[in-house]
Specification:
single chain, 102 residues
Length: 102
């Protein structure tokens, strides 16, 4: 078994155990409204962190390149409340244009 498969198995096991821990520890009690509100914020926060990390890093250091232009275009399109397909197209176009110019 390779290191990659061992890592995948360990991550699977950790995920399964953490998902099972919730019902086992809380029983039939429902979480409070505040706990549900906090839980709903976890996924967007993790996704935002991953987007920021992937946008501003390259080769082990800080990078400020065409990906930043695409992220800025996507942010502007989202602020303008454009449809998601328009956000994606504008972000891709801004990234491609920046790469073509630079």
């Amino acid at each position: 078994m390779t290191t990659a498969w061992i890592t995948i198995f360990v991550l699977f096991l950790g995920t399964a155990l953490s998902k099972a821990a919730g019902p086992l520890t809380t029983g039939s009690r429902a979480p409070s409204g505040r706990a549900l509100d906090v839980t709903r914020l976890v996924a967007p926060a993790i996704l935002a962190g991953l987007v920021a990390y992937e946008t501003f890093t390259a080769g082990g250091g800080f990078a400020f390149d065409a990906r930043v232009a695409g992220l800025a275009a996507a942010g502007a399109a989202l602020a303008a409340r454009l449809p998601m397909i328009a956000v994606i197209i504008l972000a891709a176009a801004a990234t491609a244009l920046t790469r073509a110019i630079a």
